[in-house]
Amino acid sequence: MCAARTAPEDLTISKAFDTQREQFSVASEKAVLVSVALPDRPWANEADPCDEIRGLVESAGATVVGQLTQKRQDVQLATYIGSGKVGELRELVEGAGADVVIFDNDLHPGQARNLEQALGIKVLDRSEVILDIFAGRARTAESKLQVELAQLEYSLPRLKQMWSHLSRQKGGGIGLRGPGETQLESDRRLVQHRIRDLKHKLNEVTARKEREVKSRSEEHTVSLVGYTNAGKSHLMNTLTKADVLVKNQLFSTLDTRTRQWHIRDWGRVLLSDTVGFIRDLPHHLVASFKATLSEARHAKLLLHVVDASSPQAEDHIRAVGAVLKELNCDQKPTILVLNKIDKLTDRALLTVLEAHHPRAVAVSGLTGEGIDRLEEAVMEALAAGFAEAEIVTDAGNGRVLAFLNAHAEVYRQEFRDEANEVVVRCHLPKHLLHHIAGPTVKVRFVEREKPAAAQAERESA
Ligand SMILES: Nc1nc2c(ncn2[C@@H]2O[C@H](COP(=O)(O)OP(=O)(O)OP(=O)(O)O)[C@@H](O)[C@H]2O)c(=O)[nH]1
Ligand SMILES: [Mg+2]
């Protein structure tokens, strides 16, 4: 339920939110990175443990001025890293004149607060940086709502830390006493109120999107999913001759784009490009982006794009698998697309990936290599849910004839006057067959026939 909002509350919350955005934003700041390996969260790249967080921080607009790494058996409750390392970090921060420390790990609000007290500058974690990038890139009303919701849900348990920041900046003490405590309570209520309001708005967007997506349920819908920067948007442009944004940065795409893809000998497919995933994607973001991800959730087929030239390709495949599971998409027909093969200096890496994923298709969105094999694999996968059929029914069975004309690809319709029946030769989704079942309907499965239009196109080529 969403209570009616009043204008002044709106004003207050947006101010509080702006302050919080400012606190969490790292654009044009000098950052020191910290990456901690734990037994259940080892480094993806031992040779350069800060590789990914550096990419994220630079994508957010900050400059990296130093880094600190440590392997630990467990987390130090108060400050995540031990007191010796905190001292080392303080020296690094002072020496480099840093404005912010960014952890590649997720911190509890109390840990961030304690670290800020010890270091004297702001301390952010990986999720906050990802949220900051999303906030900076959100362009449509929908993605702005989604990002704001994710940020507020993330910030709610951290409001106290935010207020201690403000009180320190204003020359006050660190602890929250008296009026600060009251303000904290009222902010908490405002944030909760705004969260309810945003959820309500987003539920409406999600419901509308689901209706739109379902109205295309008879179409061949295919979604590109994959790790951020894997080349999804580039592949979309190559396949559909579209012109969507392609950039060598993390999270270029935040909104879904759908374009027509004409596959030779098959026909039209609707291809969607969507937001990229990353390991440990903040849970709130996945939940908030449900509307944007609805194309992927309802697609008949997923193309899981991976940057095969990355030494972390297997980690990326696993991380994407985890997000797909969270979206209940892990049982969907999926083709693994090993992209950027033009970039591979050592083709042995591709051989290893292909050995692990024998059904994967290797392509280059850049040079077009392998695209014909990808088209074949897509046709094969889409055809698995379809049947070629010859359907015989009474000539007067208008319901079945209308249904077939609306939902199937009808090649021929032949009336047999002597038997007063009609034979329809068509291609249709198997799950629709039960809609036409009845005592006067006979279905016979036959060999696939090329669609007339595709056949003509092939002959003229
Ligand atoms: N060499 C090479 N580079 C590629 C290929 N495909 C994409 N790229 C480059 O990889 C970078 C990322 O490409 P995008 O298509 O924006 O990646 P994305 O998966 O859509 O990324 P997000 O939207 O951020 O999730 C760009 O610099 C592309 O030019 C490829 O096949 N080969
Ligand atoms: Mg993209």
TrEMBL record:
GO terms for cellular component: cytoplasm. GTP binds at residues 226-233, 251-255, 273-276, 339-342, 364-366. InterPro entries: G_HFLX_dom, GTP-bd, GTP-bd_M, GTPase_HflX, GTPase_HflX_N, GTPase_HflX_N_sf, P-loop_NTPase. Its main location: cytoplasm. Keywords: Cytoplasm, GTP-binding, Magnesium, Metal-binding, Nucleotide-binding. GO terms for molecular function: GTP binding; GTPase activity; metal ion binding; ribosome binding. It is found in: Cytoplasm. SUPFAM superfamilies: P-loop containing nucleoside triphosphate hydrolases (SSF52540). CDD domains: HflX. Mg(2+) binds at residues 233, 253. The keyword Transport does not apply. Residues 220-386 form the Hflx-type G domain. Its cofactor is Mg(2+). It comes from the Bacteria. Monomer. Associates with the 50S ribosomal subunit. HAMAP family: GTPase_HflX. Belongs to the TRAFAC class OBG-HflX-like GTPase superfamily. HflX GTPase family. GTPase that associates with the 50S ribosomal subunit and may have a role during protein synthesis or ribosome biogenesis. This is GTPase HflX.
